[in-house]
Amino acid sequence: MYKASIENPAGFWSGIASSEFYWKQRWGDQVYSENLDWFKGGITNVCYNCLDRNIDAGLADKIALYWESNEPGFDATLTYSQLLQRVCQLANYLKSVGVRKGDAVVVYLPMLMELPITMLACMRIGAVHSVVFAGFSSESLAQRIVDCKPKVVITCNAVKRGPKTIFLKDIVDAALIDSANKGISVDVCLTYENQLALKREKTKWKEGRDIWWEDVVPKYPTSCDVEWVDAEDPLFLLYTSGSTGKPKGVLHTTGGYMVYTATTFKYAFDYKDSDVYWCTADCGWITGHSYVTYGPMLNGATILLYEGAPNYPDPGRCWDIVDKYKVTIFYTAPTLYVTRYSRKSLRVLGSVGEPINPSAWRWFFNVVGGSRCPISDTWWQTETGGFMITPLPGAWPQKPGSATFPFFGVQPVIVDEKGVELDGECSGYLCVKSSWPGAFRTLYGDHERYETTYFKPFPGYYFTGDGCSRDKDGYHWLTGRVDDVINVKGQGIYAFVTPVEGISYSEELRKSLILTVRTQIGAFAAPDKIHWAPALPKTRSGKIMRRVLRKIAARQLDELGDTSTLADPGVVDQLIKLADT
């Protein structure tokens, strides 16, 4: 299939799009163009394909969503027909308050059922949702509101994360004040009452703007006409951090994203109709869009949503959930592996968020998967829409730590610093040549930045920003970000290093680290200077915020950007003092 997808991409993707999805009108003669348009002229709707199409295929009574609360003992389910009714009620409400095709709706919700309901309702009427992770600060939320100018903001009053209550409505209130001071006012703030976290009488309220979800949405009809849209019409906006701290509004469009996300899910996880699928990502990230909501739902899957913390009330919570729902496909980040234990229901494991080192891979395979579950070690980005390099279960032997080979239609290349393609066994910068259906189309309101960031570094290629090695067997090994190396005035690369317990700082260790990077990744990534750091700025999801390290090294301390997602913001002050020495 891969060979066919490269030799005849138009025929390959046209065949999948025609046979697997509903189109009100077929696209024209040109399936795709090199400016990334796919299926242009085709008329469809993602919500219809997620719900109505599957219901018509006999899945009306199949469980679409299992929901597990942060608090043990509280759960809920929705079938595909019930989900469609809930989606239509919200869609009708949104139309009643003036939301139309192309309008933006900002969504600041935790992992409640109301989150995918909101996403699907927006798509049903052609609105463009922008989901913001419900852990971002009011400042970050306000930035996104100002940028996309939504008609409506949808949130809930509060959420419990472990034992802690987060007052989301207070954060939204502050963001709306901030955005109004910058000239962008929002007339409607639809608020869901999360009774397990906070009763409505304790919620701060602004009459005339704030509306309780439960007071209005259930009153609307349970059917709603579909707004048919062009394949190249905007689908959603998802903001990701930029090198300057200003968020980038990644814009995905309808047809290509729908086809690509559904197809990657189907093959990368070897999906079967009997599977129960759980991805631990939040819908505030691209993984939650593509592989919590749209990819699985377009395949008619049963999806598990979990509201809470993975270790609450104890480290075995996740595995209690796996047992309860008989989860068969489990997709999570390497930083969560240490809290997992083997479960017999599992059939396929997936890894996302960061490269998985060989020892973690073996632990995941042997301990979590009981030495029987294939691992889909996926590499992709917010910008790519779906998996780009990933194993296909059973298709070829796996190598611990390798993302293996490209997915259908993807042509990865490794280039040197001059943009020259490297053949065979090599290390360098990972780029992609030619187009694929899931690619994003622009950065909202800043197309120049889109071209400068992704296409100008190596003309003729999409630059991923990642380093990659290819071994003698053609397997790909992702080495992490290369556009986040800490380069000061073009002169040198810095590294902040935290030794493990029992290892002391020394000149010998410094030289050893430089040699290791030079040997395993390549000379282009070898650090010129190493700082011994007590800790690194990590987000609550476990990712290192490299942008902060780069700004500290460059002494651009007034350009650190938003650091509200750091697990320990005090680390930043420690690193600043360290850099001064």
UniProtKB/TrEMBL annotation:
<protein>
    <recommendedName>
        <fullName>acetate--CoA ligase</fullName>
        <ecNumber>6.2.1.1</ecNumber>
    </recommendedName>
</protein>
<dbReference type="GO" id="GO:0003987">
    <property type="term" value="F:acetate-CoA ligase activity"/>
</dbReference>
<dbReference type="InterPro" id="IPR020845">
    <property type="entry name" value="AMP-binding_CS"/>
</dbReference>
<feature type="domain" description="Acetyl-coenzyme A synthetase N-terminal">
    <location>
        <begin position="1"/>
        <end position="50"/>
    </location>
</feature>
<dbReference type="InterPro" id="IPR042099">
    <property type="entry name" value="ANL_N_sf"/>
</dbReference>
<dbReference type="InterPro" id="IPR025110">
    <property type="entry name" value="AMP-bd_C"/>
</dbReference>
<dbReference type="Pfam" id="PF00501">
    <property type="entry name" value="AMP-binding"/>
</dbReference>
<keyword id="KW-0547">Nucleotide-binding</keyword>
<comment type="similarity">
    <text>Belongs to the ATP-dependent AMP-binding enzyme family.</text>
</comment>
<feature type="domain" description="AMP-dependent synthetase/ligase">
    <location>
        <begin position="60"/>
        <end position="435"/>
    </location>
</feature>
<dbReference type="GO" id="GO:0005524">
    <property type="term" value="F:ATP binding"/>
</dbReference>
<dbReference type="Pfam" id="PF13193">
    <property type="entry name" value="AMP-binding_C"/>
</dbReference>
<dbReference type="Pfam" id="PF16177">
    <property type="entry name" value="ACAS_N"/>
</dbReference>
<dbReference type="InterPro" id="IPR000873">
    <property type="entry name" value="AMP-dep_synth/lig_dom"/>
</dbReference>
<feature type="domain" description="AMP-binding enzyme C-terminal">
    <location>
        <begin position="487"/>
        <end position="543"/>
    </location>
</feature>
<dbReference type="GO" id="GO:0006085">
    <property type="term" value="P:acetyl-CoA biosynthetic process"/>
</dbReference>
<dbReference type="InterPro" id="IPR045851">
    <property type="entry name" value="AMP-bd_C_sf"/>
</dbReference>
<keyword id="KW-0436">Ligase</keyword>
<keyword id="KW-0067">ATP-binding</keyword>
<dbReference type="InterPro" id="IPR032387">
    <property type="entry name" value="ACAS_N"/>
</dbReference>
